[in-house]
Amino acid sequence: MLTARVAIVGGGLSGLYAAYLLERLGITDYVLLEARASFGGRIDSVAVAGAADGVDHYDLGATWFWPDMQPQLDRLIDELGLGRVEQYDSGDTMLERSPNEAPARLRGYPSSPSSTRLAGGMGALIDALRRRLAPGRLLSSQRVLRLSTVERHVVLDVVDADGNTSTHRVGKVLLALPPRLAQASIEFAPALPPALARQWRDTATWMAPHAKYVAVYATPFWRQHGLSGQGRSARGPLVEIHDASAQRGGAALFGFLGVPAAAREGVGEDVLKALCRAQLTRLFGAEAATPRAEFIKDWAGEPYTATPADQDGAGGHGGAPPSGVEAGPWRGLLEGIASEWSPQFPGYVAGAVDAASRGVAAWAMRGATAAPAARP
C-alpha cells in the first residue's frame, strides 16, 4: 500500500495547479493520479509544422481567458513567463441566417472585454506547470476506481492501462475532475450523502457535449478580404467560427459543431471534416477549401470527460455545487477542485485556478501540518 499526505485525482489544469500550490507550501508528500496517458484534461493543443520554420499550436479544447476579469489566472501566466495573443476580431463577420439563404456579410464588432489566448496554445500552461513539479509525483494512466474511508484516512483503489492495481492511503483527496464524472466513475464507500451526490450528478461538465473543428492554412486570407474570421450559422455544421491563428504567423479558423453529440456519433470524421470545409468555403471563399491540416476533437467521445448524461446537454457554465462534505464519514476528507466547483468562474480556465487555490487553502486550514498516514 502506497502512502501520501494528499492525493489529487485528475491531471488537468486544476490538478496540476493544486500540485504547484502544494509544492510552494513545501509539501511534496502528495500523489497526482491521471486516468489519461497524458496530462492536460480539457486543455488539448495540437502541434502543426508552420509555414515557416518552427511549430504552431492550436487549441482543441479550452481556448480563451479575459485578463481584466480573471486577474488570478493572469498573474499565474505572468509568473510562469507565458505570452499572450489577443483574439483577432477586426473586420466583418459572416452570417448564415437559415439553410436557404446565401451567407451575408455584416459589420463586425470587437468583443468587449477582449478575449485573449496563450502563445503556444493553452497547452503551454500545462507544460509550464509540469516543468515545475516533481515528476515522480505525477502518475498517468492511473484510473481511480474506488475511494473508501478507513479510520479518518482515504484509501484509493487504482488500476493502470495494463490492468495492474495499486492502493494509496492518504489523509485527503482533492478531486480535480468534474463533479458529474467523479460521481459516475468512482465508487465511494460509504456512499456520499444523497443530496450532495445528486448535486454533483446534475452539474453539467463544460465542453462535454461539444466538438471543435480546426482548419490550418498557409495564410490568413480572410483578413486580406476585410474579414475577421468570425462567423455565425443557422445552417452548420459549425454554429460559431473564429480566427485561431497562432502568434508566430500560422493561420487557422476554428468552430464549434452544432450537430448534437448523439447525431455526430453516427457520422464519420471524414464526413464531418468535408462538411466543415464546405461551410468555410461558403463563408470565406475558395481558399478555405484546401487547409494544410484539419482536426476534429469530439469531447463527447472522451470517457474521462463525458458521461452518458452529458450527451444531450448544453455543457455550458452553470452554478457551482458544494465542493466538500459537511457531515458524516467523508467530512473534511474530500474537496472538489475542478473548474465546475469554482463559485467565480465555473467551467472556465480561470475556474480551474480558482477552485484549486480554494481547495488547497481549505486543506491547509484544516490541518496541513498533520502527519501523513502511517505506513502499514
Question: What is the distance, rounded to the nearest whole angstrom, between the alpha carbons of the first and last residues?
Answer: 7 Å
Individual helix count = 9
Question: Helix-strand pattern, N to C?
Answer: EHEEEHEEEEHEEEEHEHEHEEEHHEEH
Number of DSSP E strands = 19
Strand content: 25-35%
- What is the helix fraction of residues, given as a range? 10-25%
Average of pLDDT: 92
Helix-and-strand structural type: alpha/beta
Major sheet summary line: 8 strands, mixed
Low-pLDDT residue intervals, each spanning 5 or more residues: 369-376
Describe the protein's architecture and organization:
The protein contains 9 helices and 19 strands. It has 376 residues and is α/β, with parallel strands linked by helices. Helix 1 (13-24) packs parallel to helix 3. It starts with a strand and ends in an 11-residue tail after the last helix.
Offer a few descriptive terms.
376 residues, alpha/beta, eight-stranded mixed beta sheet, seven-stranded mixed beta sheet, 9 helices, 19 strands, 23% helix, 28% strand, elongated, disordered C terminus
Task: Write a brief structural summary.
By secondary structure, the chain is of the alpha/beta class. It has helices at 13-24, 71-79, 123-131, 179-185, 194-201, 221-224, 261-264, 269-284, 349-365; strands at 2-9, 30-33, 45-49, 55-59, 84-86, 92-96, 104-106, 116-118, 138-139, 142-150, 153-160, 165-175, 187-189, 211-217, 227-233, 238-243, 251-257, 293-298, 334-336.
